Amino acid sequence: MASHSDTLVVFFGATAGANGGKLGSDEREIILLVWQIVDLHEKKVGKLQRRLVKPDSLELTDQSKEETGLSVDELYKAEPLDKVLQQFQQSVSAELKALGRSSYTLCVDGPLIIRQALHPEASKKNLVLPECFYSFVDVRKEFHKCCPNAGQVQDLTLPSILEYVCIPELPLSEQVMGLKEVRCMVQLSLHILAEPYNHKFSCFEAVKYKLESGACSKTEPVDSETVIRARGLPWQSSDQDIARFFKGLNIAKGGVALCLNAQGRRNGEALVRFINQEHRDLALERHKHHMGSRYIEVYKATGEEFLKIAGGTSNEVAQFLSKENQVIIRMRGLPFTASPQDVLTFLGADSPVTDASDGLLFVKYPDGRPTGDAFVLFSCEEYALNALKKHKQILGKRYIELFRSTAAEVQQVLNRYMSTPLISTLPSSMVPMPVLATPPYLATGSTRDCVRLRGLPYTAAIEDILEFMGEHTIDIKPHGVHMVLNQQGRPSGDAFIQMRSADRAFMVAQKCHKKMMKDRYVEVFQCSTEEMSFVLMGGTLNRSGLSPPPCKLPCLAPPAYAAFPSPAMLSEAALYQPPLLATPRTPQPPHSPHPTPTLAYYPPQHHPAQLYMNMNMNYTAYYPSPPVSPSTMSYFASPPGSVALAAQQPHAQGHVASPMMPQHGALVRMQGLPYNAGVKDILSFFQGYQLQPDAILLLYNFSGQRSGEALITFPSEESARRAVAERANHPLSGLPVRLLVCCD
Predict the structure, then answer these.
(1) Where is the RRM domain (predicted)?
(2) Could you tell me which of 660, 661, 727, 658 has the C-alpha nearest to residue 691?
(3) pTM (2 d.p.)
(4) How many CB atoms lie within 10 A of CB 672?
(5) CB 685 within 8 A of CB 732
(6) Tens digit of pLDDT for each residue in 357-414?
(7) Closest CA to 640 of 578, 557, 585, 598
(8) Residue 277 — φ and ψ, nearest 5°?
(9) What share of the chain is helix, strand, coil (3-state, %, to 5)?
(10) What's the burial of 183, exposed, middle or buried (CB within 10 Å: 0-12/13-18/19+)?
């Protein structure tokens, strides 16, 4: 607009629900618009215009019916909002032309009709509002400039202002909602334009067209009165979706920080920073408004919380985010060997990256190892949309996930990976104080010979896990099952299991992932001993990624998941009672002709080595079970105090019973399989080796697609090595297949 001083358009609206000071707080649609032009130079007014608006939902609250005097029948005959806005533009343009004016500014009684009603409704209905609705003046603030002694702006009302300047009330015949408010605002505007005030309207408020991206430094001061926390967001929502939810309110530059959980995924929460407290307070009025079909909770938050998520100190990140007006895309699942050129080739010519490789930021651990994540900059929305079309396409042998991202998410991901290991450890200020030394089986190492079970039922016991593992229980290391408790000493739904080898762990993760336990599916991930040890020695594993408050309860290994009693109520026997499971096998001489494994049960023992306590924080209960890899397929607990001996009773002929040991066989890994190859194809490939269909395990990636690999269990190591020697690099459906013997 050329000038804001030519003309005012005094504007008023009402909704089908709450009006007045609560306008827009209940998401009800606009049903009435009223306006009138005021020529600021000639002090003239135009024709008073009133339009009814037909809402999508023809329902009026009793309060709205009473205040507006409108009925559903009247609204049914009205035009929808987009048509009424067109009529508004045509009417105002015609009057401006008649007056010889070229520009105008909306004048409203408080910002609610613009910020809380019109912009949110237009956003939900995908309407493009005219430019005039992005700038306005508030008659209350303009009056406060003229008469600062009249009271605080937030305390002023139109009747109190008119009374202060001695403008008489309108006659009852003219007190129709909308008409009354517009006439009063026109009278007030003309009054302060005249002597002795000679006021000039200058407090122009703007509505931002779009969210501005930007970086935030940890040293930047953030006013706690400008920050809110939004909860319940769809996991795929972006910063633009959040800005659209708060349409009409001005979010600070880089002011949307999506929160991540401990696994680096969005947890449905975001911290949003507004330009001032007024906008923050209006945002709080949108508590339980809807984003699609979901309602969003809105609460107050602090500047410290915002900086913890969005603030950063890395020069590399600051340089990466220094390019303004860029669209950021996050890539997840990249091969660890992927180079910048590989990523650029994957994205293709239709989605060029800003400044080529300089527009890529690979996320790495503190030791320089890649995490598989990267952020990419695009100069426009079109290029970003082209890149998003490649979501879950293959790069190397892995499918790649692509999501919209934000500057705050870049900071958050980099902060997390650069400052903590994969599973975060205790803060340095919280040093664990174990009563006894670390259990001997908690070795550290980077070999990925462990699996993590996530999503266990809270009532799950060791026996349930062994049943869940099925045939793979024979591959569990001695003392290899570790249940993780939360800070209240209750099951967290997580467990770690140490396997005999990385290949066994890999096979368990492939075969048991998302398998059902009771009424829940359990996720199974391969991990390293080092990662497991971080948790078992007191590291945090909460899903928000934040350190919990110190735990005052000693986390013990209860024999069952009953309600966890307070320490004062625990008997001495309960403190030290181990689970009733099999004890270690009696070691056999290496050349014993008749190995006879012993299966024994033992009663509760008072052994202090069963108790581990962290005086500051402890998320872990050490389960000394199973204390050895199960030696038979029957692996059950015995009643307390009972003892059972097996496989030591001689037969009638005087011979010792042969052990009932399952045949472990030998694993062969097949690589380079066609993606459409099935079990029958593999059986045909190994024709003559007496394989059964259940000896073949096709491997899948986490998107449910075949990975091109399979694990084959041969009856013996000899037959496995013979198959590898004879069939390696032979073609299957035209592709050479690689074969490898998996060593324990």
Answers:
(1) 227-299, 328-403, 450-525, 667-740
(2) 727
(3) 0.55
(4) 15
(5) yes
(6) 889 999 988 778 888 999 999 999 899 999 999 999 999 888 999 988 888 888 888 8
(7) 578
(8) -65, -35
(9) 30, 25, 45
(10) buried
